[in-house]
Amino acid sequence: MQTIVISLQSPLYESVRTVKDVRPGLLMTHEQQRLHNQMKKRKECQLINKTTGVKALEEQQRQEGLEKAIDSTNKGFSLLQKMGYKPGSGIGKNNSGRVEPIGIVLKTDRKGLGREAALREIREMKKSMIHSRRSAGPSVCEYRERRAQEVAEKLDRLDLFRCQRVCRQMDLEQDIQEPSEKFFWPEEVPEVDPDKSDEEELNITSLNEQLEILNFYLRCTYNYCVYCGTVYENETDLMEECPGPNRQDH
Description:
This protein has 250 residues and is mainly alpha-helical. Helices cover 54% and strands 2% of the residues.
């Protein structure tokens, strides 16, 4: 084993002598100890924030505070004790009031305070409306009226189609190449007419009105009754022989 001897005047000795002592030791001054504690707490907070998050930490601290019972250090609690309150009993003259404090509900959104209550009430209203509508159901009179209306509409559609076919045949025999009204002839494939006015497009009549108008046209122009299925000789013959212009008259 070789032994290395360093001279006191050598540069190597000077470099070794000037190296700072980095060995761990005690914090001798109060300022050093305070800075050390601050750095330690800062590192602990950073570690907690990384693992749990700020919101989770706040929730944890809040829950710990709510679970902790109020003691005599609380000013409100001390005032209650001076007035005769005993822990575990209800507040009030006869000890019939609340035993536990009012619970805390934390609001974290920006919605109105009454919005949730209004939405709950609306949901209950909708449920009540649906239930009442299902339980009531249609009455017998309403059902009969609706069925009668459907049957009458079906008959009117058939009568209108018969009138349209007869009208087209008689108009063509008179060398009339276009119907006086669009619904006078059976409906064909619609064609786009750019010259057609909007007023004419909006002039839409119901099925019953179309039948009434077309029947009047056939009776006045050709002395024809769709319900009799007959072309009368003249207007007088039509008035005398035909029971009337409506289905009910026949």
